[in-house]
Design goal:
Length: about 90
């Protein structure tokens, strides 16, 4: 099982580190990352393996919201992501 994590907000130091540390604490393995800085805005999408995660997706979402302040973060199971983006 996989999940997609999207992150958006004003750029500052340590965003990737905070997100990846929070994922590691939940035993969610980061598989792929793409990130960019767009006019002082940080944008990142991560694909994470949640098959051995020790929390629910909702708990991971809450932890990310708490640990990565001032960023818009969304955690979505890959099945939901794929259904939403199917043409």
């Amino acid at each position: 099982m996989k999940a997609v994590i999207s992150v958006f907000g004003k750029d500052n130091v340590g965003i990737l580190a905070k997100v990846s540390t929070t994922c590691a604490a939940a035993n969610a393995n980061v598989l792929e990352v793409t990130q960019s800085i767009l006019d002082n805005y940080f944008v990142m999408i991560m694909l994470v393996d949640i098959s051995k995660m020790n929390k629910t997706i909702e708990q991971l979402q809450a932890d990310l919201d708490e640990n990565v302040a001032d960023m818009k973060i969304q955690v979505m199971h890959e099945d939901i992501f794929n259904s939403m983006h199917r043409i």
